[in-house]
Structure formats: structure tokens, C-alpha cells
Amino acid sequence: MTAITHIGLAVPDLDAAIKWYEQVLGFRLLAGPYSFDAGAENEHNMTNDLLGDDVKKMRNAHLMADNGVGIELFEFVDPRMPKGESRGYEGFFHICLIADDIEKLADDIAASGGRRRSDIWNTWENKPYYLIYCEDPFGNIIELYSRSTELMYGNKDRQEQPPI
Predict the structure, then answer these.
(1) Cβ contacts of residue 128 below 8 Å, gap of 6+?
(2) CA 28, CA 61: separation in Å to the nearest integer?
(3) Checking DSSP bridges between strand 57-64 and strand 28-37, what pairing results, if any?
């Protein structure tokens, strides 16, 4: 493995999610939105190969961060993903972002329909390595880091590392 190119997130409203990720987090739309209808596809197709035959209709779009890493947003139309329901640990998934001012960004997330889930945490005593857990308006967890993962967790005694 040489790099992470993108991750996928499920959202109940693709257009609202694109707008939110652009306006609040600064992503830019790279490709899409695309629509998928299994009835209009070949019997064997890439979408059902990935997601299974239960997915009949969906929409998706690719967004890009300034560092070249992207997210792919999926709106499942049939079967429909319920709006406004937190998925808890079922299919637990989250995105982790680096920000210059994680407290301000956490406040911006909360003010724009998301929420701040935690206090600010220091991951390494006597180092300026902080994180805050938030949630987008669609139920996905967003972890905000003050530094890269390498700095946040590298070169530490394994016994001193926090559980997450």
C-alpha cells in the first residue's frame, strides 16, 4: 500500500451533504453527482459487485480535500437510508481531518447542523497534539486532529497510547 486516495461515507441527502462538506469543511466537488439504477445496468455491474444486489438505486459524488485525499458520498435511494438517525456502532465509520484551529472548526460544525461530541483531548502529555470528536449533520463521526496521525501517535511507548 502506498497511499489512501479516498474514503466513503453514507448520507441520507447527497445534495445537502455536498453543500455541507464544501461550505463547512472546504472540500470541493470533483466528480458527480452520479445516479445508479440497477434496472438500467448490465446484470453484472461494478456498483452491485461492491455493494451487493440489495442496492437497487443510489447516488454518489467524489469530493476532494486540498491535500489530494478525497471522500465519496453515497446516498442510498433503494433501499432508503433513514434521515436523522444516528447509526451508533452499526457499520461504525468515521473520517479524520487535520485543522489549524480544531476548536473553531468544531464550533463551525456544531453551528451548521452537526454537533460536537466531545471535549478537546490531548493525546500526548506535554505535546500540542489535540483532537475533538464531532458529527456531521448526517450521523458520520468526524475526528478533528491538530497534527498528522504520524505526529499524534508515532514514537510513543505502546503502553502510553490512548485506546483510540
Answers:
(1) 146, 147
(2) 11
(3) antiparallel
